[in-house]
Design brief:
single chain; about 325 residues; alpha+beta; Phosphorylase Kinase, domain 1; Aminoglycoside 3'-phosphotransferase, Chain: A, domain 2; 2 domains; five-stranded antiparallel sheet; three-stranded antiparallel sheet; 11 helices; 10 strands
Length: about 325
């Protein structure tokens, strides 16, 4: 049950049994917040007990993070996107956590989402620090193909935005890239790619992703937003849900999830497997795919520059994979 009258809590202490009862549509007698983590958002596991019909023993709850993070997500149009997705309740034909409830408070730039804790059915969160196997990436691409096929050039909910970066964004982004490259050099991880090249490629990819057949995108399918359950890879953290070209999700997921060696050896076959599952064969699939890494590189350089969204080692590992994919694409003839 998804409640439409759920208030947005101001702090974790407000996730009381009464609040959880409204969110889950059943009587909760005990709610204990555990495993609290602050990142781009603030998130926790909530352990539950019930009177009467039982519900899940645990749920996963996401709330707004620090003010700076909220402002950044607002600029991206991502602060309330996941909550809006939950409240719209579209059928998502891929492995993802079941959604229970969501609410927004636009005045406070705040939102909350209550969802399934997938570990209760054997889900294992993935991490950029442990690259996915080729088989796992193939499974994840199959899931994304089902999503993209269902929404291919179909009407989408009004809250779903296309990829757009206005002209005022360019100087801000370039400054972030300059700062990120400086930080990388100081950390002993210099990149042989200039801020101008990254900014132009990043902005150019956003334009390309908004052209051609449009579909519903996860928008941010790096391995840290995925989990493995059985032989399937699922996707959570839908706050960058977008409309756009299929290839955005495919290139982003593939380059961020595999070791550089595995990507180089298997990316053509993985792309072909995705297209088979999609049931379409765009003539420009490979050239489009090869243009995707600069967006992922730019996104993670901005994350690295901000310094509060993701752990240091996760940023460095992901930047390394996207930078290698961008170099490979840049050196490819034609």
């Amino acid at each position: 049950m998804i409640s439409r009258v759920l208030p947005v809590p101001r702090n974790w202490s407000e996730l009381t049994p009464t609040w959880m009862s409204v969110a889950l549509g059943r009587t909760v007698t005990h709610a204990r917040v555990t495993d609290l983590v602050d990142g781009t958002n603030s998130r926790a596991v909530v352990e539950l007990e019930y009177a009467g019909p039982a519900g899940p023993a645990r749920v996963f709850v996401k709330r707004e993070g620090r003010l700076l993070n909220r402002v950044a997500l607002t600029a991206l149009g991502a602060r309330e996107a996941e909550a809006d997705l939950v409240r719209q309740r579209p059928v998502l034909p891929l492995e993802h956590p079941a959604f229970h409830a969501a609410a927004t408070d636009r005045r406070r730039l705040a939102a909350v989402v209550v969802m399934e804790d997938v570990t209760l059915r054997g889900g294992r969160p993935n991490s950029a620090l442990a690259p996915l196997t080729v088989e796992q990436v193939a499974a994840g691409l199959g899931e994304l193909a089902r999503l993209h096929a269902m929404f291919w050039d179909a009407p989408l909910p009004a809250f779903v935005r296309p990829w757009r970066l206005g002209p005022a964004w360019a100087p801000v982004a370039r400054a972030g890239f300059v700062r990120a490259l400086q930080k990388l050099r100081r950390a002993g991880h210099p990149l042989d790619i200039g801020a101008g090249e990254i900014e132009r490629g990043f902005r150019g990819w956003a334009r390309i992703a908004a052209t051609g057949p449009q579909t519903l995108l996860h928008g941010d399918p790096h391995p840290g937003n995925t989990y493995t359950v059985g032989h399937t890879v699922g996707f959570y953290d839908w706050q960058l849900v977008r409309s756009g070209s299929w290839v955005h999700d495919v290139g982003y997921f593939l380059a961020s999830s595999l070791t550089v060696a595995d990507r180089r050896e298997h990316e053509r076959a993985l792309l072909a497997g995705y297209l088979d599952a999609l049931g379409r064969r765009p003539a420009d699939a490979w050239p489009l795919y090869r243009r995707t890494p600069v967006f992922g590189l730019g996104a993670w350089l901005q994350t690295w520059a901000a310094g509060t969204f993701q752990p240091r080692d996760v940023c460095l590992a992901t930047i390394e994979r996207f930078a290698a994919a961008h170099r490979d694409a840049r050196r490819e003839p034609g």
